Amino acid sequence: PTPRALTIKLVNAFKPHLRGLASYPYRAVDAPIKLDQNESPYDLPPELKQQALRRLEGLHWNRYPSLHADEVRAKLAEGLGWPPEGLVVSPGSNLLIQALVQAANRVVDTAPTFPHYAFSAKMQAAPYQQVPLGPEFTLPTEGLSQAMKGEPALVFLPNPHAPTGRLFPASEVAVLAHQARETGGLLVLDEAYQQFSGSDHLELARTNPHVALLRTFSKAWGLGGIRAGYLLGSTEVCAVVQNFLPPFGVPAHTAAILLTVLEHPEYTRGVVQTLVAERERVYAALQEHPSWKVYPSQTNFFLIRTPDAAAAYQGLLARGILVRRQDHYFGLEGCIRVSIGTPEENTRFLEAALALPEVSH
Ligand code: PMP
Predict the structure, then answer these.
(1) Going by C-beta distance under 8 Å and a sequence separation of 6 or more, which residues neighbour residue 339?
(2) Where is the signal peptide (predicted)?
């Protein structure tokens, strides 16, 4: 189903631009095989859950947690070789996106892309510009460079890109980082799917304070339900973003769980390995599909162009598989997005995909 356009009811105390603003485009649907939110299909193993619970049990629940998730920041900083003052931890990277938009003069992103950048800009009534991706979803380096001229801008760019799955070349991202420095802007590289691509932008951020990285625990770490993400950047950028988040904002239970998984990076590495191997298997198998075009992906999901997104969505759902329609986005006519699940789920998906009746137009 296409997202329901709910209208936010306005009281007079709210800013006028909020009148008629649609709610976030997502509707929950139940299905036995859930491949619609790019989550990890693997829940944390019981031993790790027990460790996290024991840690939580040892805390004083009557006391506020540290001001800025200090223990988590210290642990992340140690692992990344990054100063703790250059890290902001928050309940979900979505909140960091909102904080960044609140702080920004103006916002630029690509079309299509992760909808929360535009959604946040609309909520804030921030000046906002979208630059269309190039043919076959290539990086519009020239268009983005142009868009960065003038009033300094904050640019959101997921790399690997969502929802196309494509990893942009480092040399082109470097051009944008350079342009951010030249124009006094900030290039925010959203690394939500970084682990699945095997590359990152840590060195770029280390050498250019006009680059910041956004990361989440919701995908490779398998903690979508826990809500945690972080921003990595210069001390100055992080100090400003931190001010837009509530004090004591990362709950003690979230911190306890994060510290536990950070002590066991081998668990996440194993999950990533399995999912990447499955991604390659699914990609190869879908080459056999008579009418679907699968875009290459460096993430844990695929964007797939079908003759009819509604028919593909319904056909898969009828076989117990929930995917996400993407055909309401600019340039994504006929497209659906499918997450990589467990090997069994992927096999079921492939069987269903190849058994769908052909749609003729
Ligand atoms: N960025 C991108 C590109 C995403 O796809 C998502 C989640 N779908 C997020 C950020 C938000 O992640 P979080 O769960 O940390 O809010």
Answers:
(1) 34, 35, 36, 37, 38, 39, 41, 300, 301, 323
(2) none
Name the token pair of 152: 């300094």
Instruction: Supply 219's token pair.
Output: 């995908």
Among protein residues, the one whose CA lies closest to atom 1 of ligand 1: 192
Say what the pLDDT of residue 11 is. Answer: 67
For the CA of 229, the nearest atom of ligand 1: 15
CB-defined site of ligand 1, < 6 Å: 38, 92-94, 114, 158, 162, 190, 192, 216, 218, 229
Q: Is pLDDT at 334 greater than 90 in this prediction? A: yes
Report pTM.
0.95
Residue-number span of the structural domain to which 197 is assigned:
62-264
- 70 burial via Cβ count (<10 Å: 0-12, 13-18, 19+): middle
Domain stop point among 264, 289, 312: 264
Task: Kindly state whether residues 182 and 280 are assigned to the same domain.
Answer: no
On whether both 307 and 225 belong to a single domain, the answer is no
For residue 147, the CA-to-ligand 1 centroid distance in Å is 24
**What pLDDT digit, counting tens, does each position of 278-318 carry?**
999 999 999 999 999 999 999 999 999 999 999 999 999 99
- From the alpha carbon of 93, which atom of ligand 1 is closest? 15
Final residue of a structural domain among 231, 264, 297: 264
Q: Which residue has the tokens 């306890």?
A: 256
Are both 180 and 256 inside the same structural domain? yes
End-to-end CA distance of the chain: 20
Residue 199 domain flag: yes
Domain co-membership, 115 together with 244: yes
pLDDT of 202? 98
> Domain check: are 310 and 231 in the same one?
no
Atom nearest to 224 CA in ligand 1: 14
Q: How far is the CA of 38 from the centre of ligand 1 (A)?
A: 9
Closest ligand 1 atom to Cα of 113:
3
Q: What is the CATH number of the domain that holds 286?
A: 3.90.1150.10
Q: Determine the distance separating the centroid of ligand 1 and the alpha carbon of 12, expressed in angstroms.
A: 32
